[in-house]
Amino acid sequence: MKIEHSDINFREETINGVLYLPEDKNPSPLIVHLNGMPGLEPEKEGERFARDMVDNGFAYYAFDYTGVRNSTGTFEYYYSQENINQVISYLVHHPKIDPTQIALIGESFGGAMAISHTARDPRVKCLAIRSPVYDTDKVAKLKIFDGLSQLWKRSKQMRFPEVHLKKWFKEQTSQYNPSKLISKISCPIRFIIGTSDEILAVDQIEEFYGKLSPDIDKEMKVVEKANHNFSNEKHFEIMKTYVIDFFREVLTAN
After folding, report:
1. What is the mean pLDDT of residues 222-237?
2. How far is Cα 253 from Cα 133, in angstroms, rounded to an integer?
3. In the predicted model, is pLDDT for residue 174 greater than 90?
4. CA contacts within 13 A on the Cβ side of 39
5. Between the CA of residue 248 and those of 48, 56, 228, 229, what are the distances in Å?
6. Which of 16, 92, 151, 227 pairs as cysteine with 71 (C-beta 3.0–4.6 A)?
7. 243 sits in which H/E element
């Protein structure tokens, strides 16, 4: 597995990321990973997801949105949506990447980001999401929001503008709410969720899934007793295998 570190320019800031590549000389399909808030550092994705992706012939890119860890600036939801666009636009020119075979995997809040982006970007050929945030209007209303926002600030992993965070978050996310955009998804998509999700209501995720067009290739897998982060090793392996099998089916079918 080859590893390339990158700092992609975005406005006046830089997006810090890591590209994991197969040793094969041929261009590979690309999987772009979209973190939750804030998720793991790109460097830690090597053993968590990247190695298995690379072993199956995929290039895998993990990055931090601007305002997160080693990416510069402050976190803005508007800009993080454009971060995704900038990342894809940069990577499609890489000589080891097949620009016609692009997929996203989004986890938790990254699931919301992935759906909101894919609804507007025909370059994304397929999409897999785990435990997705289904309605960004409701996030600030969650009982855990205040605690999470304090954790984000205290850990110094995310940097926010000096604003009233709850009000700011609602205003920012209203423009790219996955609940309003999911019906526009036209590419193959897979959901995977756990019955013991302690953050999001499973029945609401199922209702969200139901908003997908009936005419597309879609499927939702429900894993018994898995929590929001699939932190149990067995549950995580189920999730990883499910996602990789899906990408193999769609991206390497030819």
Report:
1. 97
2. 30
3. no
4. 24
5. 18, 8, 25, 23
6. 16
7. helix 233-251
198 three-class SS: coil
Q: 111: which residues sit within 8 A by CB, 6+ positions away?
A: 34, 129, 130, 131, 132, 133, 178
Write the single-letter amino acid at 79.
Answer: Y
> Interior CA angle at 179 toward 176 and 185, to 5°?
85
> Whole-prediction pTM value?
0.94
Phi and psi at residue 60, to the nearest 5°: -135, 125
Tell me the pLDDT tens digit for each residue of 6-34.
999 999 999 999 999 999 888 999 999 99
CATH 3.90.190.10 is right for the domain spanning 2-251: no
DSSP code at position 73:
S
Task: Give the β-pairing of 2-10 and 13-21.
Answer: antiparallel
Could you tell me which residues are beta bridge partners of residue 105? 33, 128
d(Cα 33, Cα 15) in Å, to the nearest integer?
14
φ, ψ of residue 182 to 5 degrees: the values are -60, -30
- On whether the CB atoms of residues 187 and 216 are closer than 8 A, the answer is yes
Kind and range of the H or E run holding 241 = helix 233-251
- Per the CB < 8 A criterion, the answer to whether 108 and 131 are in contact is yes
Give pLDDT tens digits for 45-98: 988 999 999 999 999 999 999 999 999 999 988 899 999 999 999 999 999 999
Residue located via tokens 């193959």: 188
Rounded Cα distance between 17 and 154, Å, is 23
